[in-house]
TrEMBL record:
<dbReference type="InterPro" id="IPR013528">
    <property type="entry name" value="HMG_CoA_synth_N"/>
</dbReference>
<feature type="domain" description="Hydroxymethylglutaryl-coenzyme A synthase N-terminal">
    <location>
        <begin position="11"/>
        <end position="173"/>
    </location>
</feature>
<dbReference type="Pfam" id="PF08540">
    <property type="entry name" value="HMG_CoA_synt_C"/>
</dbReference>
<dbReference type="Pfam" id="PF01154">
    <property type="entry name" value="HMG_CoA_synt_N"/>
</dbReference>
<dbReference type="InterPro" id="IPR013746">
    <property type="entry name" value="HMG_CoA_synt_C_dom"/>
</dbReference>
<comment type="similarity">
    <text>Belongs to the thiolase-like superfamily. HMG-CoA synthase family.</text>
</comment>
<protein>
    <submittedName>
        <fullName>Hydroxymethylglutaryl-CoA synthase</fullName>
    </submittedName>
</protein>
<feature type="binding site">
    <location>
        <position position="38"/>
    </location>
    <ligand>
        <name>(3S)-3-hydroxy-3-methylglutaryl-CoA</name>
    </ligand>
</feature>
<dbReference type="InterPro" id="IPR016039">
    <property type="entry name" value="Thiolase-like"/>
</dbReference>
<feature type="active site" description="Proton donor/acceptor">
    <location>
        <position position="242"/>
    </location>
</feature>
<dbReference type="InterPro" id="IPR011554">
    <property type="entry name" value="HMG_CoA_synthase_prok"/>
</dbReference>
<dbReference type="GO" id="GO:0004421">
    <property type="term" value="F:hydroxymethylglutaryl-CoA synthase activity"/>
</dbReference>
<feature type="binding site">
    <location>
        <position position="152"/>
    </location>
    <ligand>
        <name>(3S)-3-hydroxy-3-methylglutaryl-CoA</name>
    </ligand>
</feature>
<dbReference type="GO" id="GO:0006084">
    <property type="term" value="P:acetyl-CoA metabolic process"/>
</dbReference>
<feature type="active site" description="Proton donor/acceptor">
    <location>
        <position position="88"/>
    </location>
</feature>
<feature type="binding site">
    <location>
        <position position="251"/>
    </location>
    <ligand>
        <name>(3S)-3-hydroxy-3-methylglutaryl-CoA</name>
    </ligand>
</feature>
<feature type="active site" description="Acyl-thioester intermediate">
    <location>
        <position position="120"/>
    </location>
</feature>
Length: 398
């Protein structure tokens, strides 16, 4: 029965997690020199080193499928009863991206497939929905995919905070990586800090205002968590943030460095924050997947963590919705990680010249119903899925 205490007592969380980023990147030193900017403004001021650039064949569907493919066994595919794709880079106003992903991954038809949108918060909404589903259906699993391409336009203030990638999370009972606590804190309020109208391929943002909303919502949720006994900084081993660029998360963390928590607690959280941004500095902004890429980065770049350690996660989506929740590392979680493969994924990317980057950024799909063939840009073993073309206004995947 729903609401049964036996169900609520079951540990539910992320059983497997993986990510994918396209085969091309732009070095931000090259971008800075081309735009007449001191490179340190990007490397230090923004806190980024590179940004992944998606070719036409790697849209959110292809990237999402490529993120999930390596971690799914045949048993997983049979047991998935809920598939959620969270994105703010949707490809269709009607059909959910999840249905395309379902087909590419060869999942059964016995599942619910939906797409969720709320800026960068969407994946957390999907993850919480997945946890609720698994608690009610302990024998089933849920697949949550965060997939996005961040676009602000060429030679714009937001250009340096672009990126592309996808994170896939398999949610199950008795999870292999982290168990997510059922209680969390969240807040929603209508703000105009960031938006992308249906008619625009690029986003618009009020950068300073967005940072203020982000930091303000984090402070409010953290204070509530302290009052309710949920935060417990003395036992919190790491605190992860949504990081569209690493400096944003750092600003959130710095609000705790004014005596809000002890110096020892702040130093511990700061050291682990640095490990959580290793991958994000290389990939760039992936919107819905940013905080979960930070989770992978932390777990794969920090050998001092142990099973039983408690971590916090702050998720934020402009517009705006924020959530602060907590999770515990599970026994044997390291065996579920693949740091060497992920490092190889990043190192194998091709560096673009500025001209190549601008051409790739400006490439477009046809919109008149004509036929268009698209070359497969990423032939790595980790990227079997791609958009092969357009025909009669429909995307053709392989």
């Amino acid at each position: 029965m729903y609401g049964n205490s036996a169900i609520t007592d079951v540990q539910v969380g992320i059983d497997k997690i993986d990510f994918y980023t396209p085969n091309h990147y732009l070095d931000l030193v090259d971008l800075a020199q081309a735009r007449g900017v001191d490179p340190n403004k990007y490397l230090i001021g923004i806190g980024q080193s590179k940004m992944s650039v998606a070719a036409l064949d790697q849209d959110i569907v292809a990237m999402g499928a490529n993120a999930a493919e390596p971690m799914l066994t045949e048993a997983d595919r049979q047991e998935i009863g809920l598939l959620v794709v969270a994105t703010e880079s949707g490809i269709d106003q009607s059909k959910a991206a999840a249905l395309f992903v379902q087909d590419l991954l060869g999942l059964t038809n016995n599942l619910r497939a939906i797409e969720i949108k709320e800026a960068c918060y969407g994946a957390t909404a999907g993850l919480q929905l997945a946890c609720d589903y698994v608690r009610s259906h302990p024998g089933r699993k849920a697949l949550v995919i965060a997939s996005d391409i961040a676009r602000y336009g060429l030679d714009t203030p937001g250009e340096v905070t672009q990126g592309a990638g996808s994170v896939a999370m398999l949610v199950a009972c008795d999870p292999g990586i982290i168990a997510i606590e059922p209680e969390s804190l969240y807040e929603s309020r209508s703000t105009g800090d960031f938006w992308r109208p249906n008619y625009s391929a690029e986003a618009f943002a009020r950068g300073k205002f967005s940072e203020e909303v982000y930091v303000g919502m984090f402070e409010g949720l953290w204070n509530k968590a302290r009052k309710q006994g949920m935060a417990r900084p003395e036992s919190l081993q790491a605190l992860l943030f949504h990081i569209p660029f690493s400096k944003m998360g750092r600003k959130g963390l710095r609000t705790l460095g004014d005596g809000t928590i002890t110096e020892a607690d702040y130093e511990r959280l700061t050291e682990r924050f640095e490990r959580s941004i290793v991958y994000g500095r290389e990939v760039g902004n992936i919107y819905t997947g940013s905080v979960y890429l930070a989770l992978i980065s932390l777990l794969e770049n920090d050998e001092s963590l142990n099973p039983g350690d408690r971590i916090g996660l702050f998720s934020y989506g402009s517009g705006s919705v924020a959530e602060l929740y907590f999770a515990t590392l599970m026994p044997g979680y390291r065996a579920r990680l693949e740091p060497q493969r992920h490092q190889a994924l990043l190192e194998s990317r091709e560096r673009l010249s500025l001209t190549e980057y601008e051409a790739m950024f400006s490439a477009k799909l046809v919109t008149d119903g004509s036929e268009q063939e698209i070359k497969h840009s990423d032939c790595r073993d980790d990227a079997p899925h791609y958009l092969a073309g357009m025909k009669g206004h429909e995307r053709q995947y392989r």
